[in-house]
């Protein structure tokens, strides 16, 4: 072990005299990033209405795509968590709005569950940013009220849907300007809410789309007032689209096919249902449901299509039911009609459906202007934001190469971290390298360093 001990001090001196981070910190111009989500903003909503001057401005001054490809299932919690982690739902574990997990306490998860353990295990963009010494504020986002990897955003609030949108915008811009935050996230629970009860083409929904355009206008105005507009890379997107439904007439009532002898519990229901079978009854349950019209039975390890990336997690129950577009699954139709509002719009369906696809527009110094590019995936947003903030992304399922189509200046082709490189002559240590045994230690140390540290060696 003698050689190892002697290499360690050489490694230390090497690090001091020859190492530089692969991505040098930006000099002078600090870029800021704002990510906006308008819940349920379908990719084609702007064609449903006439009066959206602020979105029109974003399109002219920024970059867009036909839609952004979101993940399955197209529900609010999973899709939002994908945007900030770059992970498929099966990999970040928020696989529905309502979940069951025997290893958690409590075992049931609802949209109000903030217990850290349900969320942790993966870096979010604000975790990554704060770990790198940047400042992040989140005015509502799925997961932001929990400690994830031990980290909460520097500014955050417990969710309250009644907080006026204007107040959210003003507070966010204050963080970005007065507090000089690098990253800001903001969430609006519209036009989703209105479209559920009125349908995606309902009059009130159309009005809501125009109202959200006004909220975007307020954000652009506030950024202009604070001199930030041309320093901020602003991304406006959404979690999913919205399909026409009628939960009264297009209802699949599970009581018509199964009862409690086969089903232990229904964890999630609506466009998608998660069923926990009674012990040993999975096959009987599948047999009882496989011919039911207007839905598909997805048996986790068996017939779940690969493209959904929706099986590799224990919280995905053994039997998942996926309704055809426009249909609603309920464990008790009578109860639903009595206790829940009638839905004329819904989501959670297959992510290849046109109606499920969200909008994406971006504007700022890094983005192309007046450009329409090929669609990217919502898993690409996390590595894109990491690139814009000049920080190291955590392992994810996205692709910066794919997202690069949005950028004015393409990112430098990243060096594969683990590829062995041929050691070059070492200038700053030239007098040492005349001694052969030091030189061989140095080469060994270089090789080790190359494998151990995520830096490239700049000589
Ligand atoms: C900083 O921004 C100015 C104006 O936007 C630009 O001309 C300059 O090239 C930028 N410098 C760097 C280092 O990015
Ligand atoms: C939510 O916000 C509204 C509007 O500001 C306020 O009246 C209400 O008390 C808040 N609710 C909670 C639980 O904080
Ligand atoms: C459930 O359905 C089975 C088969 O249709 C029937 O024999 C049984 O009595 C039902 N059990 C309950 C609790 O309704
Ligand atoms: C379904 O809901 C109705 C209305 O709440 C209730 O009376 C009935 O017992 C429920 N049926 C089952 C099987 O839970
Ligand atoms: C997604 O990324 C995670 C984390 O790196 C990885 O474990 C998983 O295998 C990836 N999924 C796919 C389908 O590549
Ligand atoms: Zn949503």
TrEMBL record:
The species this protein was found in: Elysia crispata (lettuce slug)
CDD domains according to UniProt: Enpp
Gene3D superfamilies: 3.30.1360.180, Alkaline Phosphatase, subunit A
GO molecular function: hydrolase activity
Lineage: Eukaryota, Metazoa, Spiralia, Lophotrochozoa, Mollusca
Signal peptide: 1-24
Ranges annotated as spanning the membrane: none
Name of the protein in question: Ectonucleotide pyrophosphatase/phosphodiesterase family member 5
Keyword Metal-binding: no
Keywords in alphabetical order: Signal
